[in-house]
């Protein structure tokens, strides 16, 4: 099992995996725009149960995430290919979560502390999986001029949109 799992993880074609997940997400977005709720739900279930999405969710929380070495209450981190493949196999969105580990961290530039909740890595992977399915549906419904906490949008994008709108309406010339 050990060498087999390592080979499986290392042989994953991540570009193709991302592409297949993105294709389903685009379909979710399209059907959400059209108001086809049945198809959106079907595609979301397809995505959540797909091996591609599970692989990506595990990769994002165990390889790409800054907190990949920060364990939850189970003190478990996933570093080996074997552990990652096992996590992929056990990943299921079942509505169950382990209690969150609470740590206190200092507020920037102050002596005060603030609480930080750290879920176990398996729960983080579940959250990532659900995010991949829900985000395209809601991106299709959000206002085009909404910028807060949106993927691929920043404060600078919002400022640029305001600037362009003001220029288009002639407000800049009057100032």
- How much helicity do the residues have? 55-70%
Distance between the termini: 71 Å
Characterize the largest beta sheet: strand count, sense, and whether it forms a barrel. Answer: 2 strands, antiparallel
Query: What is the general shape?
Result: globular
User: Order of strands across the widest beta sheet?
Assistant: 1-2
Rounded mean pLDDT is: 90
Count, helices: 8
What is the CA-atom radius of gyration, in angstroms? 20 Å
Strand % is 5-15%
Order of helices and strands: HHHHHEEHHH
Low-confidence segments, given as residue ranges, are none
Number of E-type strands: 2
What structural category characterises the helix and strand content?
mainly alpha
List the helices and strands and how they pair.
Elements: H1 2-10, H2 14-34, H3 37-49, H4 51-64, H5 81-90, E1 101-106, E2 113-118, H6 121-141, H7 155-168, H8 171-174
Antiparallel strand pairs: 1-2
Helix pairs in contact: 1-5, 2-3, 2-4, 2-6, 3-6, 4-5, 4-6
3D architecture notes:
It is a single chain. The protein is mainly alpha-helical. The chain contains eight helices and two strands. A two-stranded antiparallel sheet has the order 1-2. The termini are far apart.
Short description:
With 175 residues, the chain is mainly alpha-helical. It contains eight helices and two strands, in the order αααααββααα.
Task: List the main descriptive attributes of the protein structure presented here.
two-stranded antiparallel sheet; single chain; globular; 2 strands; mainly alpha
